Amino acid sequence: MAKKIYKSLPDMGKARNRVDRPVLRREDIIVPASVSSYAEGRKFFIRTFGCQANVRDEEIMAGYLEKAGFCRTNEAKEADLAIINTCAVRENAEEKVYGEIGNFKANHLRDKDFTLAVCGCMMQEEGVAENLMTRYPFVNIIFGTHNIDKLLDLLAEHLERKKDLVDILSFPGDIVENLPSTRLDSYKAFVNIMYGCDKFCTYCIVPYTRGRERSRSKEDILAECRELVEQGYQEITLLGQNVNSYGKDFQDGTSFASILEEVAKLGIPRLRFMTSHPWDFSDEMLDVIAKYPNIMKCIHLPVQSGSDVVLRRMGRRYSREEYLRLVAHIRERMPECALTTDIIVGFPDETEEDFRATLSLCEEVKYDAAFTFIYSPRKGTPAAKMKDDVDDATKHRRFDQLVKVIEKGVIGHAEKMVGKTFAVLVDGPSKKDPSLLSGYTESGKLVHFRGPSQLKGHIVDVLVKESHTFSMIGELTEDPLLLLAKDFAKAFQNEEVVIRYNEAMKAFKKSESVQRLRDELEASQRALALSVKEGKDEAYLGAKKTYLALKEKYENHPIVMNLHSAQEELQRELDLIQEKLP
Ligand code: 5AD
Ligand code: SF4
After folding, report:
1. Which of 109, 131, 215, 455 could form a disulfide with 194 if both were Cys (CB 3.0 to 4.6 A apart)?
2. Of all protein residues, whose CA lies closest to atom 14 belonging to ligand 1?
3. Which residues line ligand 1 (CB under 6 A)?
4. Structural domain includes residue 175
5. Residue 285 domain-assigned (yes or no)
6. Domain total of the chain
7. Which amino acid residue places its CA nearest to atom 2 of ligand 1?
């Protein structure tokens, strides 16, 4: 494309502005004609880097594109329109973006109408968009975090004027409602309760890329959550860079605790929230978390460092002692509460003593999980200008040491779970071993276990048998078929088949003659296997005859027959119900 139009470029000075008030806009979704005709028969692909806020932005962009008539593809190669949604929090996140952009050159060469858009936090940094437009001439549209709701208009402008566009706004940010959304998950949802951050920790780019702290109205949040509950969602995570600040901008006493409580009352089975800043974590919040069983007892409480000197230079607004006091206070109120954290090693001029303070804090707190990062200077932030005498090898050595200390704590928590039963929300087949299902406990521990894939999206009880550092192996405490049936039966008010199956199973377990027959059948199976291994024909024929006779006897036993027919009936019912499900 011949010419590029730079409509507006980022300005870190303006991004720092906290004077202008954010505006509330309720947008109508209008699809420009040029976009709907382009969308016909075309597929979009979105690749998201970074945090949950970016994931939620992806869902909104997907909502716009589907409204315009595009279909989604998860195959980059098939894409007619691709969007790369970027993260700026560390340099390595940015490097991955360049690689991803390069992957789309093939789409561009194959199809002259292919459109590539790049958006998100990294685009809000000064100089990045111009650099991209020069290095990658096949990038067609660049926009930022503040104009996602203009996606279709930008696409229309690009199509109609046949020009590449850059449009990045730097301002405190608006609150935009009535956004479309196609959620990536059908039972776990993220809900933004606020945007931006005013904390300005000295290392962090987020207050510049995502604007000022601004809260969505309670009514809008509750309406979104209510809809999710009605749609059968099992888990909501309330999102904000610093949820404790929710409502402060209304200046009417509204607090995070109040919105948390109101969402909990809607009856969502699992409610989570992230992220909490240790500086303004109130007692009122703790009261609400402790009071509602559907608020998960799991708090992400980034500490960043265990050294007072470093915390001060990071601008974190709390001391090591205050943080530890808060941890003790949370555990006094809710001894079962899991705590997770974020830690940065190698902050400018971090001394060995500072680092040891971080290690000792982790030894003391014993986190359930921790995300550890090597400090990455972000241009335009105060820390990027700080003197740093620590070499890279030292930073990497400290990082490895820290990971080991954290693992010790994590293993300690994991080991205590063995032999206990936990409610697990099933995510579906495990990514590593599809023969297993995986899901998370209320405290956020990953558990793998055997069961049918239909349990996806259900909350089931799992007995933990083995603990590994970052996951557990368990087994379902109830028959999975029955679990599904119970759930469906609840929804369809038809419990007859479940009761029949239950009774047939009870009779099956109680019958001594059936159990004896089963033991004999199993023994004959083993004998048959042995005869095959030994290769003696005569023994094999004898063992096979015994096995087949016992099998027939077992299958024709009235109690076993009754169980099988109850099982079939239940399965038929489940199939029927599943067909009817949306
Ligand atoms: N370098 C390394 N880690 C960072 N984080 C934020 N900014 C930086 C940076 N410049 C980490 C913090 C934060 C998490 C989301 O990312 O630990 O809590
Ligand atoms: Fe960044 Fe600090 Fe805001 Fe978190 S609280 S987003 S670390 S500035």
Report:
1. 215
2. 342
3. 89-90, 203-204, 302, 304, 342, 344, 373, 375-376, 378
4. no
5. yes
6. 4
7. 375
